[in-house]
Amino acid sequence: MRYDLVIFDNDGVLVDSEPISNTILAAYLTELGHPTSYEESIRDYMGSAMHRIHELVQERSGQRLPEDFDDVFHGRVFAAFERELQPVPGAVQLLEKLAAGEVPYCVASSGSHERIRVGHRKTGLDRWFDEGRVFSSQDVGRGKPAPDLFLYAAERMGVAPQRCVVVEDSPLGVRAANAAGMDVYGFTAMTPAAKLTGATQLFSELGELADLLV
Question: Does this model's pTM top 0.85?
């Protein structure tokens, strides 16, 4: 195997949550007086931790988001997840192959632990991720594009950064992996390849990934 650890992003890579969450985020920001389209939400916030949303809104408008913004947003997102969320096509088959091949893997997401768990339970991916394989930006304080989360996941899994590969679908995630000194495979299902500059390699379907990893 080329790597000692595969680090998955979660939203958009394992669970097909980005269309759901960005539709809700754009609508909620617009409701609060910060007009945002779905396309702008994808461009500005896809792959980011919650603190980045607060920082960008304040930087652009001079206004703070409400104190209960995160709770309200997550409440709406989780309700939508229960109705609509599905695994990304090919995710189950990929995880089955990694497990069968005893390939070490984990997930490192900008989302909260609760968001990861809600999504995994709804899609059935929780069977592949015990607590020791789940890492969140909550664990480190600074989300992507800082390298902190990926470095923390590697440390906890006992693998040197240069022996890790990150699977990402956002420009922020690719930047974070680069900063961590890790190879990164860019998933182009939702993000144009031109926006994933810095990726070690690009792929468009999860079915391609097993051949790249093993």
Answer: yes
CA dist list (Å): 211 to 79, 102, 125, 205, 206: 36, 15, 21, 11, 10
What percent helix, strand, coil does the chain show, rounded to 5?
A: 55, 15, 35
Q: Which amino acid is at 160?
A: A
Residue-averaged pLDDT of the chain: 95
Which tokens in the block code for residue 100? Answer: 């069968």
The structure tokens listed for 75 are 């409440």
Residues 179-207: tens digit of each pLDDT: 999 999 999 999 999 999 999 999 999 99
Angle between helices 69-84 and 18-31 (to 10 degrees): 140
Strands (E), 11-144: 105-109, 134-136
